[in-house]
């Protein structure tokens, strides 16, 4: 990790209004809008007495992460390769891998910020309880960030151009949002659907976050699913990634 | 002392050999040019020197180090300006210079460097907003900002206007005078002739000649070119019999002869004997252009000469 590269990448991300909006602004705004619907603030029997706005806090936490990992980062990395920026860096004493790790780190930080914003909006505007098992929540959150970056790395590895990365990113984006529960929070999914979604990284993440939210230690199965995907995706990315 | 040694370098892509046994050595403190037509294998060769490409065969040494195996140590002594590539669109000139300076242990002061390259008033501009020439000058600055012992410049002045080109040449001479060794890739004759101490002419992946610019010109078949418009027709056979003649060409009533000093004297004698006046008589020494054409095309025939408007390149 090279601090000059890291500082530069942080500055550059701060100059991307599109990425900033979709990672940092959109998720908390989405939560605010959902919470503004009175019916979503009524406890639901089908959700063990939770309100719909409660179930959407982990969803919006994951949305920022998915945008950061699957849309913003792969486009950036692929552009760095396509435009010869990684190659130019190879002629300096600093390895181009410094650029990769800096991109990952700034997107990870943005994703975590987005999660904190979503939690804060839920807590302040709609009185959503903060996670009752904070350590378990943090662990699930970190695993979710890591798996989304690993997924983004694979997208960048298989995309020759920024356009392709954008297309793959979008194709992956909506199924990932579905798993995270944007259309139907996992608590409200039929059991079979919840089980299937739970085998995918963001379905597992949603369930792990929900468990920690209500005070339980997140299930090892869910954490294991995220860890397993992280390993598999990282191996694939390392194998397929080309520097030029 | 040779700071770059390339021995029998070979590289092919998909079964097509693009660098086919290239050898040369660059001495400390010189400007060494690699000159050749597009696709000759120049970029491939210097990118092997930079460690960006791995040779199929042969040996490359930069200050005695292997640029692939000893990448980090070579990167400390060698600065590179690549033929292609961009920077991040929203990175400013100042940030790019600061960033690349931070990569090196003893960087140059980037402010005077930017000033010297005419970027002083563009420091706050983003890369994406720079003109082609400004981008090119920024890349040159980035190659120099690490205070390298050796700098490799690939198509240095492509995209620059004539004035910026001359300024850049002067900068490169200053860089050399400060003790830096320069490996320069170009397809501009004027650039090679003006800057290079020695030139390797590469054609189809092989070195066709390696000499000083003057040496290359001396070798070229028609070292002196005589053109004129005769007031009356001249006998072609008589012309062809001129001493030391290497070629004759006729175009739009003008005659172009390539040969040596003897040819000049003989043609003047011939004209006087026939009472023919030579209108717009021009006698010029061959340029690197001519030498280059000699070296990079297999046989320079009369037809080739007719196609090349020599009056333009030699006047
Ligand atoms: N990465 C590559 N893959 C395939 N062919 C290449 C590659 N790089 C260069 N070539 C081919 O090798 C030849 C020499 O290229 P290059 O070294 O760039 O020539 P020059 O710099 O002299 O114009 C060209 O025909 C080019 O198309
Ligand atoms: Mg080239």
UniProtKB/TrEMBL annotation, chain A:
Transmembrane spans: 20-40, 55-77, 98-122, 134-157, 164-184, 220-241
A GO CC annotation given for this chain: ATP-binding cassette (ABC) transporter complex
Record key words, sorted: Antibiotic resistance, Cell membrane, Membrane, Transmembrane, Transmembrane helix, Transport
Location within or outside the cell: Cell membrane; Membrane
Molecular-function annotations in GO: ABC-type transporter activity
Chief location bin: membrane
InterPro entries found in the cross-reference section: ABC-2_transporter, ABC2_TM, ABC2_TM_bact-type, ABC_2_transport
One Pfam family, short name: ABC2_membrane
Membrane topology note: Multi-pass membrane protein
Occurrences of domain ABC transmembrane type-2 (ranges): 18-244
Keyword Transmembrane found: yes
Keyword set includes Membrane: yes
Family membership: Belongs to the ABC-2 integral membrane protein family.
Protein's UniProt name: Transport permease protein
